[in-house]
Amino acid sequence: MTNQMNRFEGKVALVTGGRSGIGQAIARRLHEEGATVITAQRGEDKMFDWIPADFSDPQTPERVVAEVIDRAGKLDVLINNAGMMMEAGIEEMTLEDWQRNIDLNLTAPFLLTRAALPYLRKTQGSIVNTSSVEGLAANPGHAAYAVTKSGILGLTRSIAVDHGHEGIRCNAVAPGWIDTDLNINLIENSPDAEAFKRDLGKIHPVGRTGKPEEVAALVAFLAADEAGFITGQVYTVDGGRTTKLSLP
Question: 22 vs 57, 137, 170, 203, 226, CA distance in Å?
């Protein structure tokens, strides 16, 4: 059995959006288990080797993958995590904002995967995409986000089906409410932070919100060789939120 602490020894992982939140937790977990980690995003990563990247630019994904190969010589794990969320209903959202969501949340993972496939083919590599519970259901005013995160699920299954025979696996995680800095600030800046926390606890059967490290643990498993018979699947990490029905 593989030692969990060195599952990624000698492997190279690219984590997009790895400077903060869930992406940072994933980057840390892979590094702790032996991976050489490179992150890619707009802001500087003070923990890991990083590549400046604006993934709304369609030229960026190919450049980023090429830079990873130049620096590390290969690619074993691709984590498509970078994304955005904009609050606007269908009538309020401009076409420009709609397209921006599509470009960053859906087109960028497609282009990154396309650029990475020749290298993942050589290493029998793994891809893990970050979707959301909003890829399975929808919150009010999140039309573009829900559409793109649903699209990630279709992309995940298509990659798995098209490239499984080449030894490439692809899975997705669908996090719910996770205590990232962004969400913590949202709670703390609300009119009644304690009431907000209590209400969040009530909608989760486990009675609390999630931690980025809990998502990272699942991502690490899915990316590791021990998950070699798992592909094309979507794993919800939401404390049971999407399982719970509300009483009338």
Answer: 22, 20, 18, 21, 22
